[in-house]
Amino acid sequence: MYKLEEFKQLVRDFGGVSDFLVVYVAEAHSTDGWAFTNNYDIKQHRSLEDRLSAAQILVQNEPLCPVVVDEMNDVTAINYGALPERLYVLQAGKVVYKGGTGPWGYNPQEVRSFLEKIK
């Protein structure tokens, strides 16, 4: 959520030439886990319904693209090394850009530079 506005600007600027998708994975800062102050009150997901409910907070903040949720076995997060978050660009089904892991490696500006080069 910290860089959601930067992500939304990417969608606005490149939505005509790229498809965007958010995959909501396991909650990194659950209130019953490793939490910090002034964060959303989201507990660790114990069911798919919990994860879907938590993803609604993101949907309500209008990411300007579809939001899907990872399975409870975290198959997407594991396969993409995306815990707690990561940005990817795929082209013709192949990864052409893999950002660093978040929060420090989550860099929408890097994605912007990459997309500008291939647009």
- Unreliable stretches: none
User: Strand order of the main beta sheet, please?
Assistant: 1-2
Can you tell me the CATH superfamily?
A: Glutaredoxin
Main sheet record: 2 strands, parallel
Shape: globular
Structural class: alpha+beta
State the CATH topology.
Answer: Glutaredoxin
The succession of helices and strands, N to C, reads: HEHEHEEH
Number of strands: 4
The CATH class is Alpha Beta
Distance from N terminus to C terminus (CA atoms, Å) equals 26 Å
Rg (CA only): 14 Å
Number of helices: 4
Organism: Channa striata (Snakehead murrel)
Keywords: Oxidoreductase, Selenocysteine, Thyroid hormones biosynthesis
Family: Belongs to the iodothyronine deiodinase family.
Protein name: Iodothyronine deiodinase
Which keywords apply here?
two-stranded parallel sheet; two-stranded antiparallel sheet; 119 residues; thyroid hormones biosynthesis; alpha+beta; selenocysteine; oxidoreductase; Glutaredoxin; globular; thyroxine 5'-deiodinase activity; 4 helices; 34% helix; Iodothyronine_deiodinase
Description:
By secondary structure, the protein is an alpha+beta fold. The protein has a single domain, classed as Glutaredoxin (3-Layer(aba) Sandwich), CATH 3.40.30. The protein has four helices and four strands; from the N terminus they run αβαβαββα. It has a two-stranded parallel ribbon. The protein has a two-stranded antiparallel ribbon with strand order 3-4. α1 packs parallel to α4. The mean pLDDT is 86. Belongs to the iodothyronine deiodinase family.
